[in-house]
TrEMBL record:
Gene3D superfamilies xrefs: Nucleoside Triphosphate Pyrophosphohydrolase
Keywords (A to Z) from UniProt: Hydrolase, Magnesium, Manganese, Metal-binding
EC number(s) per entry: 3.6.1.55
Pfam families (alphabetical): NUDIX
Cofactor: Mn(2+); Mg(2+)
Domain Nudix hydrolase: 23-157
Enzyme class (EC, first level): hydrolase
GO molecular function, one term: 8-oxo-7,8-dihydrodeoxyguanosine triphosphate pyrophosphatase activity
Keyword check for Transport: no
Keyword Lipid metabolism: no
The protein's name in its UniProt record: NUDIX hydrolase
Length: 211
């Protein structure tokens, strides 16, 4: 093997997550909108007719298509389709930290501003059962409830324990996942939506401390 040749071929390669080519990629937008001159976060309630997660609260978003220029373009396209607005009505789209889930997906979150009035939105009934907003100032003041989910490792039945140190007594590294819950009226915001929201609020808090 010519080591110099290998080095020259790989030195300019951009690192990425191992096996990320096999991951499903999704993009979502955390939309900010003015309601009576106050900045609100806009949420969707998924239509009850949807096969996956009907009735749950989410942000606009969906799978990144091959026709999308990039993840940002996918987030904008999905927001346009779900809220019935034009690209020009979505401004200042900015990336947040992406999420790699243990279920073979990568989620690319963004936040941005919806410049049209709330009453002018035309949600897609096939995907959106309801829209509601929550004042950003309220979300910045409240602390979410946090619960832990334990993820248990269960190797398949014919796993080759005999070839690894420790055998059947091998100590698998346990992992806990935190689930955040925000409450607003009768609405419960949790799951990935709450995780992205919490990340966004933490960034705002950090910015305000450093301002």
């Amino acid at each position: 093997m010519d080591w110099n040749k290998v080095t020259n071929q790989l030195k300019d390669r951009k690192p990425q997550i191992i096996d990320s080519e096999s991951y499903a990629k999704f993009a979502v937008l955390l939309p900010l909108i003015k309601v009576e001159n106050e900045l609100h976060v806009l949420f969707e309630v998924r239509a009850m007719e949807l096969r996956r997660q009907p009735g749950e609260i989410c942000f606009p978003g969906g799978k990144v298509d091959k026709t999308d220029k990039n993840e940002k373009a996918a987030a904008i396209r999905e927001t346009m389709e779900e809220l019935g607005i034009t690209e020009q009505e979505i401004q200042d789209v900015t990336p947040l930290d992406y999420v790699v889930s243990p279920f073979g997906t990568i989620i690319y979150p963004y936040f941005g501003t919806i410049t049209t009035e709330l009453d002018n939105l035309k949600p897609n009934d096939a995907e959106v059962g309801e829209l509601f907003t929550t004042p950003l100032s309220y979300l910045q003041k409240v602390e979410p409830d946090i619960y832990s989910i334990k993820c248990k490792m269960e190797p398949e039945q014919n796993f080759p324990f005999h070839v690894i140190p420790g055998g059947v007594d091998y100590e698998w590294q346990a992992r806990n996942m935190e689930e955040h819950f925000y409450y607003y009226g009768d609405k419960v915001i949790w799951g990935l939506t709450a995780r992205i929201l919490h990340h966004f609020l933490q960034l705002l808090q950090k910015f305000e401390r450093n301002d």
